[in-house]
Each structure stands twice: as structure tokens, then as C-alpha cells.
């Protein structure tokens, strides 16, 4: 196309009220409807490892309504990332709608335009030829998640939701994570355990901390024991003989609660036969015991 014919075409467009930006005509239009869409541009060199592939898979899975376009060189440009090729080979990601003749936009970063000549070195606008000559040419492919991978992730999400609901159900079923059973003579030691559990955000039943004036002592303790996940028994020479402590861990045994004996100035041999078969720990290892407790939601 000669310069004179281009000038004539531009003049006609300007007479029609068409404005130009960087020698490119801006055609006004009024759509009969608007559909919201979203797309992402991914360039060769950005999918270099499994971490970046995982992020793309998460994007494809989490936003199925969005388009994800990947650009890599056709001739002379950057080659396809090896991590993406591996994901394609194992059937996680599909390469769809593969098109060539894309070039980097001369004005905008991470923007590509498709330029197809109308003939041998014949372009609609002179700047298109400049862009093509400068190159390189790119392929544009649409990344899609394979049906197998989507089903795998959907199954994983279902399992996660079921686990979440199970934990929620357990959390609502139990009032306390730990019921502390001890002798009054060991109040100072058990208070240390109580404070550490509270600091770790666990709900703890410790009689003086929970009971209020006017409460039915026996009824409150019974309901709290029923509503506790497990019972921690501070075993000392005093508590081992306490009828009240014996009744607490005995009730926990009947209710099939987990019982954790914590030894304080007492050896495992001093435990009653029913408790001796249980795994016990020492008071100075209380921090380890708390770290092994399932973190509350």
C-alpha cells in the first residue's frame, strides 16, 4: 500500500469522525450486550519448576471461567518451558487452541498482537511490518486442565471438606479439649499445665477455674467430663490415693475417653493395674505432650 493511498484512507476515516492513536484508528462501537471475561497471560520462562506449575494448576482449577494464554517462540523466541512440557506429558495440563503469528506489542508489556499479512509483505498498517520484521514470532496456546486432573482435585477438595465438617462436628460435640484430674495438693503443678494449654488455645476443664459459686459440684464435673475429649491425670503420691480422682479417671475409662497419666514424684509402677498399660509421661515433658495434642480449630 503506497503512502498516498494510506493518506487518502486516513483522510476518509477522519472525515467520518474516526480518531487515531499512534497512527492506529480507534473505531467507536456500541455493543448490544456485555459479557464479563477474564484472561491471564503467561510467558515462556515463567513456568520453570513444579512450584510455578502448581500455581497455574491452582489457577486453572479455581477459575474455570477464565482463559489462561501461554506464549512461547515460534522461530528465534524463547522455547516452551520444560516444566510445562512435563505437566503436559503426564496429562495434567492440555495445550488448546494453538495459534501462531503473535508478536509482542511495541507499546505495552505482557501484551501480544496477532499480525497476519494480506500477501507478500502487505500489511494493513506500516507499523505492523515493523513489528514483524523486528520479531520474534510467538505461538499462543490456551492452557486447560485435563479432566483427570480436575477430577483428582475435585476429589481432594471433597475429602478436605468432609474432614473440615468432621472436625467441626467434633468441636461442637466437645466442650473441653482436656479435663484435668488432680489432687488439691498438686494445684500449683496442675495450674502450670492449665496455663500452657490455654496459651496454646485449648479449652481446659480445671475445677477451680470453671466452677462458680452455686454450681452443683458433682453434676458440673460429670457434664464436663462427658464433654471433654480426653482426661489428663496428674499422678502423684497424693492423687493416687484420692477417692475423687479415682472416681474421675474411672468414669473416663467407662466413657472410653483417652486417659493420659502425667507422673509427678511418682513412678509408673505406682499406677493402678488398669492405668499401667497406658502410655504415660513425666511432668517435665508436658510441653511435648501439648505439642502432640491436635490443634483446635
Q: pLDDT under 50 segments (min length 5)?
A: none
Strand order of the largest sheet: 3-4-7-5-6
Shape, principal axes of CA atoms: rod-shaped
Name the beta content range: 15-25%
Rg, rounded, reads: 36 Å
In terms of structural class, how would the helical and strand content be classed? alpha/beta
Q: What's the helix-strand series?
A: HEEEHEHEEHEHEHEHHEHEHEH
- Helical element count? 11
The averaged pLDDT comes out at 84
Question: N-to-C terminal Cα separation, in Å?
Answer: 70 Å
Instruction: Specify the oligomeric state.
Output: single chain
Count all strands and give the number. 12
Helix content: 40-55%
Q: Tell me about the biggest sheet?
A: 5 strands, mixed
Describe the structure.
The chain has 297 residues and is α/β, with parallel strands linked by helices. Helices cover 40% and strands 23% of the residues. It is built from eleven helices and twelve strands. The protein has helices at residues 3-15, 50-62, 82-89, 126-134, 147-173, 187-199, 207-210, 217-226, 243-254, 273-276, 286-292, and strands spanning 19-21, 24-26, 39-43, 67-75, 93-104, 112-114, 137-145, 176-181, 204-205, 228-235, 258-263, 281-282. The protein has a five-stranded mixed beta sheet. Helix 9 (243-254) links the parallel strand 10 (228-235) and strand 11 (258-263). The longest helix has 27 residues, at 147-173. The radius of gyration is 36 Å and the shape is rod-shaped. The model has no long low-confidence stretch (mean pLDDT 84).
